[in-house]
Design a protein that fits this description.
The protein is mainly alpha-helical and 256 residues long. It contains eleven helices and no strands. It starts with a helix and ends with a helix.
Length: 256
């Protein structure tokens, strides 16, 4: 924990030294920050962000899917140590197992850019969301090797989804509102965590972590399917009609 505090402190210092590029005129003419108006400014920014999301439900549904899967993955890792202990894994082994699980997240982050270049976002998001949900269920296995594999896969697919969603949303958001709108995604994640933590805690105590993870995986999978269907136009914008139109245009170009 002490090392973690030190490294986090170093990270904060490094991040604090980053200079924000002034891209637009609005950013260049931005008023100097003042604590006296911070409440009013935050309210204006949040109001404008939620207004933008109402106008762009395609971005909102992408944020929501990422928040739900991220919440499920985070909670599973929270309770994974309890699951290992309940299945007779020693404290020394738990540390190694959790390290392997986190390496899955690092691998997912590294692979996200490569996959995003070769797979359309909607398809990649759908695959990763469903595989992450299935990985939660696998994490509940009483066999440590399977449980670790499930945790590794969970972090791998959830971090691919998180990174790909962040890149997709960054590409679609206006520069002036980008930081505030991305923070809305963090708010959605926090709300999901607050709502989901008590029920999952109760299930872990009532029926055991294995069954709780299995139930969680089913709920995550069902929720992901519902969100993908609800945001079908956002995740899969190229319908059959648009493909036929593109094919006709291509054929016309070839004839010319």
């Amino acid at each position: 924990y002490g090392c973690n505090v030190v490294f986090c402190g170093i990270s904060i210092l490094l991040i604090g030294g980053i200079k924000e590029p002034q891209v637009t005129e609005a950013q260049k003419n931005r008023a100097k920050f003042s604590f006296a108006t911070i409440g009013r400014d935050m309210l204006r920014q949040l109001t404008g962000s939620f207004r933008f999301l109402r106008q762009r439900p395609d971005i909102a549904i992408k944020m929501l899917l990422d928040a739900v899967i991220g919440c499920g993955g985070t909670l599973t890792i929270f309770f994974l140590q309890q699951h290992f202990s309940a299945n007779g894994v020693s404290l020394g082994q738990i540390g190694i197992f959790l390290l392997v699980v986190e390496i899955g997240g690092m691998a997912g982050t590294k692979c996200a850019a490569i996959l995003a270049r070769n797979i359309p976002f909607g398809r990649l998001a759908g695959i990763c969301a469903l595989l992450a949900a299935g990985s939660v269920a696998l994490t509940g296995s009483s066999i440590p090797a399977l449980s670790v594999s499930g945790g590794f896969a969970l972090r791998f697919f959830s971090l691919i989804l998180e990174t790909a969603t962040s890149n997709e949303i960054n590409r679609e958001l206006p520069s002036d509102q980008r930081a505030t709108l991305i923070s809305v995604g963090s708010i959605l994640f926090s709300i999901a965590m607050i709502a989901a933590t008590p029920p999952l805690s109760f299930l872990c105590d009532a029926i055991g972590t294995g069954s709780a993870f299995l139930s969680e995986g089913a709920v995550l999978g069902g929720t992901a399917v519902c969100l993908l269907l609800l945001g079908k136009k956002a995740f899969f914008p190229f319908t059959s009609s648009s493909r036929e139109k593109n094919a006709a245009v291509s054929a016309g170009n070839r004839r010319q």
